[in-house]
């Protein structure tokens, strides 16, 4: 096996391990750290695919900004420190069957897929080509997305503040 295949399998296993650890953790901060492991592993897979720009964005946006935003959200909300043990029952088995079935369907769908290649050489200048495309052809969707993210952030803060005011009103 080549080094590429070994690196791909190791990064894939780390991403899957991070996801499984996140789902099985009982503490919220452990879940966040597991999610960071998954995000960084996916960034490594992007590097193997010669998508360095997407890998850097993955680390900056997801591993950094989104994770910090989630941690602040966790710290702003009130939650029980004591959490009950997750119950192992038939739902876990049904979930496993669903995930495996989804994986098989996706594999079969992608396996026979043929994508026409374009003449754009992204492997050598992918950051430059993405920047040119993003800021020449897709300026309006880029700005609309930034405004949408800002609205979502303000909405989350308003919801967190309204929950605090409701709790303060019931305590008095």
Characteristic terms for this protein:
172 residues; mainly alpha; Four Helix Bundle (Hemerythrin (Met), subunit A); 80% helix; Nuo/plastoQ_OxRdtase_6_NuoJ; NADH_UbQ/plastoQ_OxRdtase_su6; transmembrane
Task: Describe this structure as you would to a colleague.
This protein is an all-alpha fold. The chain has a domain at 1-81: NADH-ubiquinone/plastoquinone oxidoreductase chain 6, subunit NuoJ (Four Helix Bundle (Hemerythrin (Met), subunit A)). It is 80% helix and 0% strand. The chain contains 6 helices and no strands. It has helices spanning 3-24, 28-48, 52-76, 90-111, 122-136, 139-171. α1 packs antiparallel against α2 (28-48). The mean pLDDT is 78. Keywords: Cell membrane, Membrane, NAD, Quinone, Transmembrane, Transmembrane helix. InterPro entries: NADH_UbQ/plastoQ_OxRdtase_su6, Nuo/plastoQ_OxRdtase_6_NuoJ. The chain crosses the membrane at residues 6-24, 31-49, 55-76, 96-115, 135-160.
- CATH fold node name of the domain at 1-81: Four Helix Bundle (Hemerythrin (Met), subunit A)
Pattern of helices and strands: HHHHHH
Secondary-structure class: mainly alpha
The rough form would be described as: globular
Label the CATH architecture of the domain at 1-81.
Up-down Bundle
The CA-CA distance between the termini, in Å, is 67 Å
Can you give me a brief rundown of this structure?
This protein has 172 residues and is mainly α. The chain is built from 6 helices and no strands. The protein has helices at 3-24, 28-48, 52-76, 90-111, 122-136, 139-171.
């Amino acid at each position: 096996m080549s080094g590429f295949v070994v690196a791909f399998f190791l990064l894939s296993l780390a991403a899957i391990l991070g996801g499984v650890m996140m789902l099985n953790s009982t503490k919220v901060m452990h879940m966040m750290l597991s999610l960071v492991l998954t995000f960084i592993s996916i960034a490594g897979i992007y590097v193997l695919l010669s998508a360095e720009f997407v890998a850097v964005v993955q680390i900056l946006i997801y591993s950094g900004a989104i994770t910090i935003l989630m941690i602040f959200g966790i710290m702003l909300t009130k939650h029980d420190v004591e959490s009950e043990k997750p119950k192992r029952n038939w739902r876990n088995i049904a979930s496993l069957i669903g995930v495996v079935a989804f994986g098989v369907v996706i594999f079969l769908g992608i396996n026979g897929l043929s994508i026409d290649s374009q003449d754009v050489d992204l492997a050598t200048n992918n950051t430059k080509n993405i920047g040119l495309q993003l800021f020449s052809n897709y300026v309006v969707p880029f700005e609309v997305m930034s405004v949408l993210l800002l609205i979502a952030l303000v909405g989350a803060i308003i919801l967190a503040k309204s929950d605090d005011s409701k709790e303060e009103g019931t305590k008095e």
